[in-house]
Write a structure and sequence with these properties.
175 residues, mainly alpha, two-stranded antiparallel sheet
Amino acid sequence: MIGKSDFKLNNVIKQPNIMETKKDNPGVYIPPPLFYVLVFLAAIFIQTKFPINNSIFQMQAIKILGIVFIVIALFFLVRSLSQFLKTKNTLMTIRPASSLQTSGIYRITRNPMYTGLAIIYLGITCFVGNWWNIILFPILILIVQEYIIRHEERYLERGFGQEYLNYKYKVRRWL
């Protein structure tokens, strides 16, 4: 159905993008990486008050696992950040997006930056050696998913409509 805000150009019906007509944004006012840092630091603080034996983290295999996690995380982070920079999209969650990312690393996951940050969190945990980081990790993921990702998804649905819904149907939120 064509509404008043639709217009016809060269026999193609095109709805103006909400992001071009308003200063809409996801409404995430705290930078997402800050959540990862705060939870990580909270875990370190909790360890000082309620210590859990961390001897397993001294094992060489755990250190190697940490390196593997960090390499995988860098793959996600570098690919997603470089794609954002190439397409001149914003990394600031309080600014409107200029385009919908669906190619490259975004064919694997809708949230490669958050996936990369989660994996690097685990990688650094292997070196810091703190069970509290592992215990708090599901809470971190829940916060990221419910506060950040859900806001962003609603925003992308408003702005990109069916194009985003099709993408959302094909590509998983995490992995």
